[in-house]
Amino acid sequence: MKIEINFTQSEIFEFLQKKGYEIKSWLWEFTDETFPNGIASHESWTFTACKTGENQSEENIFIKVFDKEIQQILKQIK
Fold first, then answer.
1. HEC profile for 5-67?
2. By Cβ atoms counted within 10 A, which residue in 1, 17, 27, 76 is the most buried?
3. Could you tell me which residues come within 8 angstroms of residue 33 by beta carbon, excluding any fewer than 6 positions away?
4. pLDDT tens-digit readout, 30-75
């Protein structure tokens, strides 16, 4: 079964805040090897969803955290 849901970014932020996350802007800097014979550096502004004491990182980019929270809710109604 496939479930498709459409939320605005502000609705996702609101949901995560109700779950106890703090939403913060974050400059995500990463490198990859997409170019032949070289490493490319990238920067992208995004948002993180952090609980108290967590540091901002790729692991808590808001959409990843949202996905984990939704998966937990779906497991509960399974």
1. CCCCHHHHHHHHHHCCCEEEEEEEEEEECCCCCCCEEEEEEEEEEECCCCCCCHHHEHHHHHH
2. 17
3. 39, 40
4. 888 777 777 878 888 999 999 999 999 999 999 999 999 999 998 9
